[in-house]
Amino acid sequence: MDTFDWCLKLGENKEKHKGLRKVEPAPLIAQEHILKARHNFETAVRNKKDAPDWSVAMYFYSAYHCLLALLRQLGYESRNQECTFTCAEYLIARGLEFEIEIIAWIRKTSQQVEKDAKELREEFQYGVKISVSKEVLQ
Questions:
Q1: Which of 64-73, 108-117, 120-129 has the lowest mean pLDDT?
Q2: Which of 18, 33, 49, 53 has its C-alpha lying 20 to 30 A from 2's C-alpha?
Q3: pLDDT value at residue 17
Q4: Comparing C-alpha atoms, which of 23, 117, 132 is closest to residue 62?
Q5: 16: Cβ contacts below 8 Å, ≥ 6 apart
Q6: Cα 16–chain centre separation
Q7: Contact predicate 33/65, CB 8 Å
Q8: CA dist 138 → 29, 62, 74, 82 (Å)
């Protein structure tokens, strides 16, 4: 079973699943994800100086909500970060015109950072560090 099928399996027969489901396309929900992405991005920019550790998480979730918007527009609902990335890659491999590098960028926030966005978000959200290098916040 590949990762995409595993994600769909996680989404089966559960009221509140923890995976991926094929659903009706939902443009209004997609738009709400875009609004949430914009909110997260603008908040990250405003707080970059005073709360850089939280800005890392907000930048990650800004990009992540853009992916969730894309998936909802195309008829998928994800409640699992790995399933979100996997579904986007699956759709790209099947002809979706979307640059795979964007998915890699979300996972690897920049060439200057060794950790991906999720790892950075977890490090700063659950860890004790407050300061963040300028390279991470670019």
A1: 108-117
A2: 33
A3: 87
A4: 117
A5: 79
A6: 19
A7: yes
A8: 29, 14, 30, 24
**Is 74 strand, coil or helix?**
helix
- The residue with tokens 């960028």 is 105
- Higher pLDDT, residue 117 or 113: 117
Rounded CA gap, 27 and 10, in Å?
24
Judge whether residue 11 has pLDDT over 90. yes
Q: Is 112 helix (H, G, I), strand (E, B) or coil?
A: coil
Q: Are 122 and 56 in contact (CB under 8 A)?
A: no
Closest residue by Cα to residue 63 from 129, 134, 120, 12: 120
**Six-digit token string for 106:** 């979300």
**pLDDT for 108:** 63
Rounded mean pLDDT of 80-103?
A: 91
